[in-house]
Specification:
The protein is globular and about 50 Å long. Helix 2 packs parallel to helix 7 and helix 6 crosses helix 7. The relative contact order is 0.16. The chain has 7 helices and 7 strands, in the order H-E-H-E-H-E-H-E-H-E-H-E-E-H. It starts with a helix and ends with a helix. The site of 5-O-phosphono-beta-D-ribofuranosylamine (GRF) has 14 residues, from helix 2, strand 5 and helix 7.
Length: about 190
């Protein structure tokens, strides 16, 4: 496919910890002719991640790393990524914070999706916070990863209206639907496609 479209797809690793619905949307996107990326490996810190099932379904390599020893896990991941010539990392519901040293090794090549309209509500429980503070909108953001949590340059955002009847769960569901659209769009955007 890459040859047919005249460019080589960028070898991408997706890091997950849980359900992997963003992973699924990225895999589907990667298979489109217009996509500049291929998903070559799925990595997780959690052997029970439901998202790891997509490795089997879509015949993609997967690897689980034990983060009990964080720096050792990062070292092993870096070796694997270099060995596989990975050029882009997409964090998709990955619940570990990567070290500055790790990020330096992939400077400008790590993306993350976050379920809030950054710079509002970095970290966890974003939907609870948006509802508690009576915000009119929540949403999601794709951004580059830098050394500070959820603080890298923003690539794109989608807004989602908050209703009076919303619970964090209801809101999360509607935001997640937008995330599945937003992440592929961010990738097209950074490659000027
Ligand atoms: C998403 O809301 C993502 O923004 C957040 O964690 C959730 C992961 O969902 N960081 P999934 O595993 O992609 O389904």
């Amino acid at each position: 496919m890459a040859q047919l479209t005249g460019f080589k797809k960028i070898k991408t690793a997706v890091f997950i910890s849980g359900t992997g619905s963003n992973l699924k949307s990225l895999i589907k996107f990667s298979k489109l002719k217009k996509s500049p990326i291929s998903i070559n490996i799925i990595m997780s810190n959690n052997s029970k991640s439901k998202g790891l099932e997509f490795a089997k379904i879509y015949k993609i390599k997967k690897k689980v790393f034990n983060f009990k020893n964080h720096s050792q896990a990062e070292r092993k991941i870096l070796i694997k990524l270099k060995k596989d010539n990975i050029n882009l990392i997409c964090l998709a519901g990955f619940m570990k914070i990567l070290s500055r040293n790790f990020i330096k090794n992939f400077n400008g090549k790590i993306l993350n999706i976050h379920p809030s309209l950054l710079p509002k509500y970095k970290g966890l429980n974003t939907h609870e916070k948006a509802i508690r503070f009576k915000d009119k909108y929540s949403g999601c953001t794709v951004h580059y990863v830098n050394g500070r949590l959820d603080s890298g340059k923003i690539i794109n955002q989608a807004k989602v209206k908050i209703y009076k009847t919303d619970t964090p769960k209801k809101l999360a569901k509607r935001v997640l639907a937008q995330e599945h659209r937003l992440y592929p769009e961010a990738i097209l955007k950074i490659f000027n496609l």
